[in-house]
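Hi V.,

Quick status before I head out on leave. The structure for the redesign project is tokenized and pasted below; the design run finished overnight.
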């Protein structure tokens, strides 16, 4: 497959020269004072912010595969905390989505693809001996609402989270953009 890099660089030259950035100018502090943790799913690139009424400058948007905080000290949790303490975030929304690729992931199938792509079996064995648990690291999400709820709990209960920052859980339909509320943080109404 052809690399997209040159296409992107050419487009970018025109984008800047035409001053197409003008409508996107905004400050670095989120006007709505929210952080949104969501999934890297391609269908959500524009749909997620549009369906939530979020525009450039409104929010801190953090994305990964599955909208997960997989470890209380991973880079996602760090991003949320930096958003709160350094960048005016006052409310956190975890937005998973139906049809997430992380729900159907099969650790053994991923490992098989790695070896097909040239990763040596010895490398995988070395990592296993060093303590990497691939079946856990690549484990599929149970149900999307449950996974969102688990991530919400991890964030709410984090020892470095201020008590007055509400954390809500939602699931978005990647076709219609409809949001289903999984968990409203009662602290938001306090
Ligand atoms: Zn996803």
């Amino acid at each position: 497959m052809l690399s997209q890099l040159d296409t992107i660089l050419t487009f970018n030259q025109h984008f800047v020269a035409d001053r197409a950035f003008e409508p996107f100018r905004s400050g670095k502090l989120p006007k709505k004072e929210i952080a949104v943790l969501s999934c890297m799913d391609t269908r959500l690139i524009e749909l997620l912010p549009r369906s939530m009424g979020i525009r450039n400058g409104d929010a801190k948007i953090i994305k990964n595969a599955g909208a997960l905080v997989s470890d209380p000290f991973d880079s996602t949790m760090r991003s949320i905390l930096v958003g709160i303490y350094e960048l005016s975030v006052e409310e956190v929304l975890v937005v998973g989505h139906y049809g997430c690729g992380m729900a159907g992931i099969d650790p053994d199938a991923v490992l098989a693809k790695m070896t097909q792509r040239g990763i040596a079996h010895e490398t995988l064995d070395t990592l296993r001996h060093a303590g990497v648990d691939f079946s856990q690291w690549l484990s599929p999400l149970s149900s999307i609402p449950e996974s969102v709820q688990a991530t919400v709990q991890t964030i709410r209960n984090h020892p470095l989270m201020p008590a007055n920052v509400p954390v809500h859980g939602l699931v978005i339909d990647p076709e219609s953009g409809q949001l289903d509320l999984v968990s409203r943080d009662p602290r938001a109404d306090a």
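Above is the designed sequence. The mean pLDDT is 96.

G. will cover questions while I'm gone.

Best,
W.
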